[in-house]
Amino acid sequence: MSRRERRRRRVAPAPATGAGLLRFFEEESMGVKIRPRTLIILTIIFIVICIVIQLSA
């Protein structure tokens, strides 16, 4: 038996889709929903404002 075959036997199989994997994505959570792109843009704007304030002080 090769090392590769031994590793394959140790690794657990991936869960089936019927075991709740898809259900996780169907659940709605409460709270603010914001797209990742919007969050990145707001973060960059915040950083720029902080730099401008720091340089003007």
Topology:
Blueprint: H1 3-10, H2 21-26, H3 36-56
What key phrases describe this protein's structure?
single chain, 57 residues, mainly alpha, 3 helices, 61% helix, elongated
Question: What does this entry look like structurally?
Answer:
With about 55 residues, this protein is an all-alpha fold. It has one domain (about 5-55). The chain is about 60% helix and about 0% strand. It has helices at about 5-10, 20-25, 35-55. It is elongated, with a radius of gyration of 23 Å.
Q: Residue share in helices? A: 55-70%
Q: Assembly type of the shown chains?
A: single chain
Silhouette: elongated
The number of helical runs is 3
Could you report the average pLDDT, rounded to the nearest whole number? Answer: 76
Radius of gyration: 23 Å
Question: What portion of residues belong to β-strands?
Answer: under 5%
Summing up helix and strand content along with how strands pair, one would put the structural category as mainly alpha
